[in-house]
Amino acid sequence: MTFNxxxxxxxxxxxxxxxxxxxxxxxxxTFRELRAYVNRATHWLLRHDLxxxxxxxxxxxxxxxLVASFLAVVQAGGVAVPLNPWLPVDDYHFYFQDSRxxxxxxxxxxxxxxxxxxxxxxxxxSIWDLSPEDDFFREILTLADDAAFWLYSSGSTGxxxxxxxxQTDLIASCDSYGHEILGILPHDVLFSTAKIFxxxxxxxxxxxxxxxxxxxxxxxxxxxxxRITEIFRRYRPTIFFSVPSFYSRLLTAPTxxxxxxxxxxISAGEHLPVEVFQRWKETTGLEIIxxxxxxxxxxxxxSNRQGACKAGxxxxxxxxxxxxxxxxxxxxxxxxxIGNLMxxxxxxxxxxxxxxxxxxxxFQGRWVLTGxxxxxxxxxxxxxxxxxxDLFKVGGAWVVPRDVENALLTHKAVxxxxxxxxxxxxxxxxxxxYVVLKDGHSSEGMDxxxxxxxxxxxxxxxxxxRAFHFVGELPRTFTGxxxxxxxxxxx
Length: 491
Prior knowledge:
- With about 500 residues, this protein is of the alpha/beta class.
- The protein contains 13 helices and 26 strands.
- The protein has helices at about 5-10, 30-45, 65-75, 90-100, 170-180, 200-210, 225-235, 245-250, 275-285, 355-360, 400-410, 445-455, 485-490, and strands at about 20-25, 30, 55-60, 80-85, 105, 120-125, 145-150, 160-165, 190, 215, 240, 265, 290-295, 300-305, 315, 320-325, 340-345, 350, 365, 365-375, 380-385, 390-395, 395-400, 415-425, 430-435, 465-470.
- Strands 2-1-10-9-11-12-13-14-15 form a nine-stranded mixed β-sheet. Strands 16, 17, 19, 20 and 21 form a five-stranded antiparallel β-sheet that branches.
- A hairpin with a 2-residue loop joins strand 22 and strand 23 (about 395-400).
- It is globular and about 70 Å long.
């Protein structure tokens, strides 16, 4: 079946050509202007001899140039590979070698990149100088199962993997989560602290607004509470996408957020603590709609709903997806039993690039193994219990880090916490807590106070951390996930 992602995203916008598609500090674009620049960039890439399913690396901050470049690569039959634009220079060597790309589109100067001998560098700013004669484009033949884009996994457990996605995957996410859960309308203004180079941000800032004819705010800068305040005041977004750690920062930041325009607050990327959900609702009057998505599934496939959020849960399965919780032998488990979460849906990736062993482990027929431990209640709400490699045993009993972290967050001095299992010299595993304190609180004597606080909660004795480590921040990926393996390496 012939299918092209770029054409499918623009298909609904012929009656909205004069509406604003992109709001950015550098320029604003209507849908008609964006489509014209995408067509020009497509001709530009073909003149550089882009071949079908050839990878094109994109190293750019979130911008109109990034959106136009991504869509042009896909429209021309290539494979768009957006990369984190803030990586140290030496880190790019891995991506250049792994992808075997010949073309790179970037907003960086050549001296800011590693020495490149086989990659041709194209400046993203050249898009605005391309000829208007190329505004119209003859459709390139692409198939539904052709690769359209790669997303590198966040690297929360080690070296990133290239997740290969087909032409139809983003559209499946639009039709399921974007339509059924968010109900995005043309008058909406979307803003995401998650950037386009990873799955959550790609849907929020590129696919959803174009597909539904809404506007999107693209901010090239790294996100801070002060920057959020400025964006909310200037652009008045109606749908806000972020991650739990950033909602927590906003609650403690000395900023005056203007939230009257908001109708939805969305969270994903990591587990949303009950404490953060409750404090945000008490402070703003808005629920945080938490959900679960993975790079392998393109976007969110389990989600809470507005007005039907259960604090501490990831919500219920999104229409269009099937989910199940199994034991290690693959048998389905009943409600309230913790097991392996598996998901099936049309947005699932094709495979991992050059990683047959991991592909066979994760992609099991129509099912995808998420690597998350979950249980489901009798109303169909799913509850996160940790990554499969995050859980550990103390004295023969399982410790779920999330339970200890949630209890720590109820202490008035704790801003963030992460719990890991550390094997001591005697070979026994004990819980260690890494804690970020709120401003104005000292670590002196805090380990004893936190231990007493946990003992007064519902936690069992074996779950109480044997050591507390007070840090200025937790190590995170650029997508916001705590890198627990780095915490374990610090002991």
